[in-house]
Amino acid sequence: MNAVAAFLEPAHGDFSETASAWVREHLPAVPAAHGDESARLEARVLCGRMGAAGLFAPIAAGDLRSLCLLREAIAGVSPLADAVVALQALAATPVLIAGTDRQKQEWVSALVSGRAVGAFVMTEPQAGSDVAAMQTTATRDGDGWVINGEKHLISNAGIADLHVVFAVTSPGKGSRGITAFLVPAGTPGLNFDAPQVMAAPHPLGRIVLNGCRLPADAVLGDVDGGFKLGMMTLDRIRPSVGAAACGMAATALADALSHARTRRQFGQALGELQLVRARIGEMATDLDAARLLVYRAAWEKDRGADRITVPAAMAKSFATEAAQRIVDAAVQITGGLGVLVGTRVEYLYRAVRALRIYEGATDVQRLVIGAALLAEPPAPAPSPSQT
Ligand SMILES: Cc1cc2nc3c(=O)[nH]c(=O)nc-3n(C[C@H](O)[C@H](O)[C@H](O)COP(=O)(O)OP(=O)(O)OC[C@H]3O[C@@H](n4cnc5c(N)ncnc54)[C@H](O)[C@@H]3O)c2cc1C
Q1: If you measure from the C-alpha of residue 358 to the centroid of ligand 1, how many angstroms do you get, rounded to a whole number?
Q2: Which residue has its alpha carbon closest to ligand 1 atom 51?
Q3: Whole-angstrom Cα distance, residue 363 to residue 130?
Q4: Domain total of the chain
Q5: 154 CB within 6 A, ligand 1
Q6: pLDDT in tens, 185-227
Q7: What residues act catalytically?
């Protein structure tokens, strides 16, 4: 039974099958344990392969449900490959929203074909959840701009061809004083400083901008409109983070089921033990609920909603928290084997954690939902017949 069929069109089934077939053919069932440098190299290779296979097409088409299906299919097998998809979407989407024709021509097809690797360069050591506190500045220099500052926790740092960089252009104006810039790799003054090694393979690192000179046409969208552009981009991509979480959770559930059917203790299969059964029931219910929220949010966007802030926040926060619970339960059901390096649930256990933090931590998403509800006019009191 497909819990989310009501939110999908027939074409989504075809795309989902294409994505799943590519995953079966190209991604290893159990990824090798490897360090930062190989993750960096592998991400570049995967980007080219996925782009050549047409898997990034939903990004250019603005088809969020297909992007969710893609991330769900890929993340359960290779969280690293999923990060590659995420970053192509994060780099291309602001160009699609606000780019000039020339900027779109130069970058969208390069990103979507996998010829160019993208990076979304927002977070700073002193400005994480509080994006408006960023300190990187872009000051006018004749017709152009000069950027100075430090960014950290940047995916694809050191391998990206295009960096969408956010910087303060009107100091003191907070979120209304930030602008987005398109900065190609090789621009003097843009430097990959150092890798930041994550628990699971993910090309992450620090970028320093030191007197980085840009022409006037490097501005993406409106001067001082970068915060809004960044938030619009994250809104659109956020449900797909939930989809990636669902992909990881689905794999963990499948592995837990397989283990519970075959592993025997106390003279019976683990799956015969009532507490294990109940745990599996909870995992499956969590997964279906997460998928429903993810595809509801994506459907809202695909049917034309300009902003999907609340459904996206619900989808991302619930799905990533649920996936963490599901993967943890799968490790528990797998027992000691579940914490051995080389076991799929062990890899997922390390990979799933970051999803609750990046692109808006769970706590912040919950605040967004609560604030939106409190800003609505109070609902009328129920009439006596409704009580
Ligand atoms: C794997 C990974 C990839 C990333 N890739 C990128 C990237 O490509 N580009 C980029 O720009 N950034 C990226 N980031 C950075 C990411 O967006 C930030 O880590 C995230 O926004 C949180 O910022 P922070 O880490 O500074 O945590 P902080 O902002 O310091 O927050 C720490 C914790 O405090 C709590 N918290 C914060 N604010 C509130 C609040 N208002 N109310 C209640 N609780 C709160 C939350 O629990 C939060 O997790 C990545 C991070 C990771 C882990």
Answers
A1: 5
A2: 358
A3: 13
A4: 3
A5: yes
A6: 999 999 999 999 999 989 999 999 999 999 999 999 999 999 9
A7: 359
Ligand 1, atom 1, lies closest to the CA of 354
Which region holds residue 359: left if phi is over 0, alpha if psi is between -120 and 50, else beta?
left
Closest Cα to atom 37 of ligand 1? 129
- What's the whole-model pTM score? 0.96
Write down the pLDDT at residue 306: 87
Domain shared by 66 and 43, yes or no: yes
Domain boundary among 85, 112, 139: 112
What residue numbers bound the domain in which 85 lies? Answer: 8-112
* Distance in Å, CA 140 to ligand 1 centroid: 29
Whether residues 203 and 243 share a domain: the answer is: no
> Could you tell me which of 55, 54, 29, 28 has the C-alpha nearest to residue 42?
28
Burial 159-198 (b: 16+ CB within 10 A, else e): bbbbbbbbbbbeeeeebebbbbbbbeeebeebebbebbeb
Report, in angstroms and rounded to the nearest whole number, the Rg of the chain calculated over CA atoms: 22
With tokens 């809104």, the residue in question is: 235
State whether 72 and 129 are in the same domain. Answer: no
What is the distance in A from the centroid of ligand 1 to the CA of 129? Answer: 5
The pLDDT score that the predictor gives to residue 41 is 86
153 and 166, same structural domain? yes
Cα end-to-end span (Å), the chain: 36
pLDDT score at 29: 67
Last residue of a domain, one of 193, 224, 255: 224
Taking alpha carbons only, the member of 295, 319, 254, 247 closest to residue 74 is 247
Read off the pLDDT of residues 151-195 as tens digits, 9 standing for 90 and up. 999 999 999 999 999 999 999 999 999 999 999 999 999 999 999
If asked whether residues 244 and 205 sit together in one domain, one would say no
Query: Same domain, yes or no, for 369 and 241?
Result: yes
pLDDT at position 55 is 97
Tell me whether residue 3 is in a domain: no
Spans in the chain with pLDDT lower than 50 = none
